[in-house]
Amino acid sequence: MDTTAYVFDLLKIILPALIVAGSIFYLIQQYLDKEQQRRLIELRLQSSKETLPLRLQAYERVTLLLERITPNNLLVRLNSSGQTAPEFHRLLVSEIRAEYEHNLSQQLYMSPEVWDQVKQAKENILTMINKAYHGLPTPQQARGTELAKRILETLMTDEADPTARALNAIKREATGLF
């Protein structure tokens, strides 16, 4: 009976110790989990503080890109007088492509859907310019002013700004940052 009493006394000591150790382990585990969550939240907050200005700057730059390649603004900025239609056509197309390529890196800061809208706007403008150029009676002999006039006529008859959808998508997404 002596060993049974000894085992029983040992169990009276070990069992409460195991319960206390298990409780301490559980509490420490919960504390560490909450501490890790707090650190993740701090990291995300710090990251958003750093990336928010970059994202806003990207939206500004892409908005400026769209405004610069809008046919109205493009025709005012690039002078068509003294140029033939083929020269002016090449100038318009190369200007649009250069503006777009200059801002390609901005797609990192916006959603793929918005960037697709920007690409689509660029393609719509290029298509409009190409159709206007090929719609001239004799494109090789036409003046640049005739091409500019044809582009403006196309813009008026379509009654849709080719960049409007992309600009609205940018505004919606930028507003969602706040």
Question: Could you write a compact summary of the structure shown?
Answer:
Keywords: Membrane, Transmembrane, Transmembrane helix. This protein is mostly helical and 178 residues long. The protein has helices spanning 2-69, 71-77, 85-102, 112-134, 144-158, 164-175.
Structure overview:
- With 178 residues, the protein is mainly α.
- It has six helices and no strands.
- It has helices at 2-69, 71-77, 85-102, 112-134, 144-158, 164-175.
- Helix 1 (2-69) runs antiparallel to helix 6, helix 3 runs antiparallel to helix 4 and helix 4 (112-134) crosses helix 5 (144-158).
- The longest helix is centred in the first third of the chain and has 68 residues, at 2-69.
- The protein is rod-shaped, with a radius of gyration of 33 Å.
Structural class, by secondary structure, is: mainly alpha
User: Roughly how many Å apart are the termini?
Assistant: 75 Å
Shape: rod-shaped
Q: Biggest β-sheet: count, sense, barrel?
A: none
Tell me the strand percentage band.
under 5%
Uncertain residue ranges: none
Based on DSSP secondary structure assignment, what is the total number of beta strands?
0
Discrete helix count? 6
Order of SSEs: HHHHHH
